[in-house]
Each structure stands twice: as structure tokens, then as C-alpha cells.
Amino acid sequence: MQTFLLRQFLFFFFLISLSAPLSAQELSIWTIKELQELGLQANGLVQAARSQIDMAEADVISARAFPNPKVSVEAGPQSKRLPASVTGPSDNQREVKVSQPIENPFLRSARIGSAEALVDARQASLNQVRADLAAQLRIRAYELLLRQEEAQMETSIYDLMKEIYRRIKVSVDVGETARFELIRAETEVLSAENRMEAAMLNAERARVALVQLTAGALQSNFTINASLSDPVEFPPLEQLRQEIVQANPDIQRLEAEQNSANLRIDQQKASVLPSVSVLFTNFQDRQFMSNTAGVSLEIPLFYRRRGEIDNAIYDSARIRNTLDYRRFEIGQQLESAWQAKEIARRRVEMFEGGIVTEAELALSIAQTAYRLGERGFIEVLDTQRVLRGVLGDLLQARFELQSAAAEIDRLRAHYPKEHTIE
User: Fold this and answer.
1) Burial of 169 (C-beta count, 10 Å sphere; 0-12/13-18/19+)
2) Distance CA 162, CA 188 (A)
3) Neighbouring C-beta atoms of residue 245, cutoff 10 Å
């Protein structure tokens, strides 16, 4: 009895969560695009990636800074060693030295360019996080729709099994049907009830996963203004291939990192040139004052930064090889997602083209024949299972179509960028 009451409670709770607003809050309705915008604004991973851009821009400020001058002051008493008539009076002396490094313009431009390229790389990383999150939000939203459709389907099957059970029970009570049929029908009712409860819980789990991606900004009592049957449209495959090479954030990040690595090579090579510092010295005592100026050169004679240059060259080669591989890999991911989309589309067209209609018609005929006493419970059960399998496959094919579309949009970084906060 307690198990039955618990199942009824879960059933009514699910119906309320689907159709009725909570008393404390109004029911909110969101489109897929609005969910993506909300998640992109609220998710902490996006904020963390944006902080990486701020850090890279701060590094550019450091790279553009000029070297500071060095100033030293020396002072102390001057003691005489010979008679005053020979050396003059005893007094203090003071010496001021100023050194200003003159930065190599080639080294400076390479350092600044490398830092600026890293800003572009961090921006591309942010775009990649956004694209990944937007795709996840879209997939989770359609998964919630899938689970809700499955729950509604299982609920209708449960209602059907209960109606058949009621009819069989009446027949058993009047002695027209063996009690074995009632036991079999009761088993089917319990099985349908268990599937219905599992489908309801899966729908709630999908709802929680979607709320989690929005970092709690999305209230739990929401509905999605979308359908698994939403149209999926894309440009031709060849156009997508060209678009992804230019728009994919991961490719953009690696290209920016390679540019930065090449400029680091130039920076290390430019550091081999002699570094220059301008010197100025002022010396004073009681009797004399002198001003001297000069130039200081640091000549890399014994060590010409071979290790640093080789390290930068190998790092650039590493990034270049990674970039070549990622271009190939992303191209293959596009091909795979496109084929998955086409397969899912053909499956949807196949199911919608007559299979579902025929399965529904077969069930209707079996139910009518059962009510007239021309067919038994087994025939109804078999046709119901066929229809349940066909409907489940249709829902799964629609979800796979939307998932493939989300993957293609992720690869080409297609998401509502214009509404994100910079």
C-alpha cells in the first residue's frame, strides 16, 4: 500500500511540474536561444575564461613598458694624507651615477607582438568555452524535452494497461476469463508503472542538469518553448568546411599561439645583439667638480642564448604540428557530425513516413478487436510494445538530429555572441 501511494505521489508531482505553476513563483518559459544567453552570462567558466583575457592584456602593458633608469649616490668624508699646503683642505665628497638602458627596438617590438598575440589566443579560448557551453545547453534542453516526451509516452501506456487490467478484472469476476489473464495483466501494469516512474525521474534529472549549467540562474519551475521536431537547417557541407577553418575557436587559438611563438623566436634572436646603456656621472668635492658621460655595452660574447632560441623554435614547431593535427581532426569531426545529422534525419523521415502511423493503427485495431472479444490480451500487448518501440526510436532519432546540429554549431562557433557580456 505504501509503495502504491508513493508511486501515485511521484506521478502527480510530475504532472504538476509539467503543467502547473508553483504557488510561490510564476512559470517561466524559455527558448533555446534565451537559455544559451542566460547560461553564457551566468556560468562561472565563462567568467574565468574572460579573466584570462584581462591577464593577457595586463601582460601587454608590461611588455610595452620602458626600462627604468638606475641611479646611485655615493658620499663620504675625504681625509688628507699629506700636509694641507700640498693637498688642500679636508672635506666631504659626493658622486652621483645615472644609468639608462636603451632597449633594442627589434627585441621590444617582438616582445610586444608576442604579448598581443596571446591576447588573441585568450580571446579564442573564451570563444571556445562559450561555444562548448552553448552546445551543452542546447543538448541538455533537448534532452529534457526528450525525457518529458518519454514520460508522457510511458504515462499513456500505463493508462492503457490500467484500462485493460480493469476490463480483464471484470471478465474474471463474471467468470468469462481465467484468473491467469488477470495475473499477467497486473504484471504488465506494474511494469508500465515502473517505466513511467523511471521516465519521470529521468526528466527531473535532465531538468537539474540544465539548471546546473546555468549556475542556478535558471529557476527549477521552467518550461522550454521548443520541440524535438524543430527544423535543422545548415549551409552546404563544402561551405561549412571553409567556414570552420576560419571560425573554429580552437584553430584560432592555435594560430594566435603560433604567431606568439614565432615572435618569441625573434625576441630571443634580437636579445643576442649588444645591449646599450647611457651613463652619466657627477662628482663633487670642495675643490673640484666633474661631469662625465659614456656608453655601456653588454656584449654576448661567450653565450649567445642558444638554449633559449632553440627552446622557442621547438615550441613553435610543437604548436604548428598541433595546429595541423587539429585542423584535420576538426574537419573529421565536422564530417562525422554531418553524417550523424543525415542519418538521424533519414531515420526521422522513415518513422514519420508511415511506420508510426502503421503501428498506431495496429494498436487501435488490436484494442477494438479485444473489446469485441475477437483478440486476446497478448495481441494487444504485442502491438503496444511495437508501438512503444517505434515511438521511442522516433524520439531518439529526433534527439540525435538536434544533438548533431548542436555539434556542428559548436565546431563553427555559432551561438548568440551578440548578447554576451564582455
Assistant:
1) middle
2) 9
3) 15
The grid cell for 171 is: 471478465
User: Tell me: the pLDDT tens digits for 33-80?
Assistant: 999 999 999 989 999 999 999 999 999 999 999 999 999 998 878 776
Beta strands, E only, 275-336: 275-284, 289-298
Listed in sequence order, the residues at least 6 apart from 244 whose beta carbon sits closer than 8 Å to its beta carbon are 251, 330, 331, 334, 411, 412
Task: Report the alpha-carbon distance of residue 265 to residue 323 in Å, rounded.
Answer: 18
Could you give the dihedral angle defined by the CA atoms of residues 151, 153, 156 and 158, in that order, rounded to the nearest 10 degrees? -60
205, three cell numbers: 534529472
Instruction: List all residues 6 or more positions away from 254 whose beta carbon is below 8 Å from its beta carbon.
Output: 319, 322, 323, 326
The Cα-based distances of 110 to 103, 258, 269, 312, 374 in angstroms read: 12, 13, 10, 13, 88
DSSP 182-220: HHHHHHHHHHHHHHHHHHHHHHHHHHHHHHHHTTT-S-S
Kindly report, residue by residue over 329-368, the tens digit of the pLDDT: 999 999 999 999 999 999 999 998 888 888 888 888 887 8
pLDDT > 70 in the chain, percent = 87
The pLDDT tens digits of the residues spanning 216-238 come to 888 878 899 999 999 999 999 99
- Own/partner pairs for 177-185, CB < 8 Å, 24+ apart? 181/376, 181/377, 184/377, 185/161, 185/377
Which amino acid type is present at position 149?
A: E
Short-list 137, 191, 126, CA closest to 162: 191
In tens, the pLDDT along 152-205 reads: 999 988 988 888 888 778 777 777 666 777 788 888 889 889 999 999 999 999
The string over 398-417, giving b where at least 16 C-beta atoms fall within 10 Å of a residue's C-beta and e elsewhere, is: bbbbbbbbbbbbbbbbbbee
CA angle in degrees (0–180, nearest 5) for 6-7-13: 90
Quote the CA–CA distance of 244 and 408 in Å, as a whole number.
Answer: 9
What is the identity of the amino acid at 380?
Answer: V
Cβ–Cβ contacts within 10 Å for residue 197, how many?
18
Q: Are strands 222-224 and 70-78 parallel, antiparallel or unpaired?
A: unpaired
- Three-class secondary structure of residue 339 per DSSP: helix
Residue 19 Cα to chain centre, angstroms: 31
